Amino acid sequence: MHWTPEHAQPLNQWPEQHLDVSSTTPSPAHKLELPPGGRQRCHYAWAHDDISALTASNLLKRYAEKYSGVLDSPYERPTLGGYGDAAFLNGAKGDPDPWPGPEPHYPLASLHEGLPGTKSGSGGGSGGLGGSPVLAGNLPEPLYAGNACGAPSTTPEYAAGYGGGYLAPGYCAQTGTALPTPSPAALLQPPPPPGYGPSGPLYNYPAGGYAAQPGYGALPPPPAPPPTPYLPSGLAAPTPLPAPAASRPAPTSYSFQAAAPGAEAGMSLKRKAADEGAEGRYRKYVYEPTKAPAADGAPYPAADNGECRGNGFRAKPPGATEEASGKYAGGIPLKVLGSPIYGPQLEPFEKFPERVPAPAPRGGFVLPSEEPLKGVDPGSLELVTSKMLDCGPPVQWADVAGQGPLKAALEEELVWPLLRPPAYPGSPRPPRTVLLFGPRGAGKALLGRCLATQLGATLLRLRGATLATQSAAEGARLLQAAFAAARCRPPAVLLISELDALLQTREDGTTATGALQAPLLACLDGGCGAGADGMLVVGTTSRPAALDEATRRRFALRFYVALPDGTARGQILQRALAQQGCVLSERELAALVQGTQGFSGGELGQLCQQAAAGAGLPGLQCPLSYKDLEAALAKVGPRASPKELDSYVEWDKMYGFGH
Ligand SMILES: Nc1ncnc2c1ncn2[C@@H]1O[C@H](COP(=O)(O)OP(=O)(O)OP(=O)(O)O)[C@@H](O)[C@H]1O
Ligand SMILES: [Mg+2]
């Protein structure tokens, strides 16, 4: 047999093969060229034709085995030229150890880079698909597929090609586990752009989510959009969403929201908004205890020149809330009592832009297209406009003591959806009706005013009890006029307090239920229906059980406004007493808070007034003392009995949305 290795191998490989050829019988043609002393040990770099058949057979077998793994490898191999022949000539022929040669000449970008768990760095070299299959094929079993760390190989297809060959001894490509199998989609992903770490997240959106729309106060400025290189081409940036709903607990079985006409799909029925530890989250809800003293003793100072802002509110008097002290008069911080944060958490006025002229429609809270005044009695409309338009100062979340979870719920389920633009055409309408129920004086109307402020809306107030004193026809006319007036001033909040009075049986035997309920339901359907987007109806009642199902279901959201807890009572008292120039010691205030358990905010205000009256200080020339308050405590007490409070909790479980 006449055989030369050139017949079987490419030219650039045959010198290596000849390093294997240890023939001791050089060809006669070469004998003369060999140094005499080295003849017996010399390895020829070229073939000679008198090789034995056995040697030739062994050679064939050996190289067939050696390269069969390479040829069968499922991975795309780099061109051999990329590594240079020198890599194969580096004296490591058949070496079972990891390849000790130089780094590849080209920085081969491994497709595995960017996959989770992939380690980048020089130690790994181009161990991915760019690794040398030849070398991998040379490696003994334990070095395959990251087994340098002794991890079990779970991905057999990686064994041949996944570059153990370039792993330095001891390098662990995966910590204790084999590299996860890449999905076909991942393999099709383009490599990350230069400058971004391969193991970084593909999207790097802010953890806190997106800020609300401009115009909504107390939220941080919107974060910068994610850098465009992070967005795969062709993909639009996701629509900003409000706070994550995923953290909300599952609704309880009592909720009626799914059946309510205004209840929107996707809105959680029950939620626990109290994230007690997250102070920053409720920072803006923190009560601002001190306002500028009212000149006339009214709950809100009238030092605003009577000027009514475009949104129906007047600005707070400058510095009205700036003087909040972080402690009780005696020096105990309210945090000691479990308050979230207490201090001057102020909302700058700039966050409540003037609405003159009316701003462009915002989000779902847009201008109605219908003619709102059609068929409305002009006299009633005039009456409503002059008597019901609320021009009080704006009420921020921080102006409401306590009620943190409720405030968060109102904001997340009402304010944000109303201010947020619809995500897509035909997306669910935000709720247009909310019912606040709870004991008298608990702050339901205050929260209604706060909602109007947060929405930048005109506020119209209607008292059910007042309406119920009118004749049925007049009451219905006023009701329609109130809805029409609200609709023609969008965005508007119509606050109907004492809603239950509209549905009660009168003492004279005539029942308003039939007379006023029908117009009320019609107004709720029409005024808050699909055609009227610019208004929100806030109904309040201290007798939720008096509401029949039809009325109840017209309110898409129903929230329980509970009595203030000890911390909130302390804050309300401190504010009320500060307005009267009264400074109590820490112990006195703590005792007063203890003695006013079960008081509503309204009753705390009455207590302070009673103390002033009892002290003979109608003009509030002298500060109140603790003794005056003690005396007043004997006369003013909480109105809501424990039984009543229990009934609210029960009603909340049945029909409320919890918070
Ligand atoms: N949480 C509170 N923080 C500060 N002030 C409060 C709070 N709750 C009630 N008040 C004060 O108590 C008074 C009565 O509040 P409001 O009118 O809102 O109660 P209400 O629940 O609407 O009562 P009603 O059922 O009688 O209509 C207001 O002066 C309000 O400022
Ligand atoms: Mg009220």
Automatic annotation (TrEMBL):
Residues 120-131 have a biased composition (Gly residues). Keywords: ATP-binding, Cytoplasm, Hydrolase, Nucleotide-binding. Residues 219-230 have a biased composition (Pro residues). Residues 231-253 have a biased composition (Low complexity). InterPro entries: AAA+_ATPase, ATPase_AAA_core, MT-severing_AAA_ATPase, P-loop_NTPase. It is found in: Cytoplasm, Cell cortex. One of its GO terms (molecular function) is ATP binding. Residues 10-27 have a biased composition (Polar residues). Residues 430-565 form the AAA+ ATPase domain. It catalyses: ATP + H2O = ADP + phosphate + H(+). Its main location: cytoplasm. Transmembrane segments: none annotated. Coiled coil: none annotated. Residues 1-36, 91-134, 216-253 are annotated as: Disordered. GO terms for cellular component: cell cortex. Its cofactor is Mg(2+). Microtubule-severing enzyme that negatively regulates cell migration and wound healing. In migrating cells, targets dynamic microtubules (MTs) at the leading edge and severs them, thereby suppressing motility. Microtubule severing releases ARHGEF2 which activates RHOA, which in turn regulates focal ahesion turnover via focal adhesion kinase, as opposed to F-actin polymerization, to suppress cell motility. Negative regulator of axon regeneration that suppresses axonal growth by selectively severing dynamic MTs in the distal axon shaft and growth cone. This is Fidgetin-like protein 2.
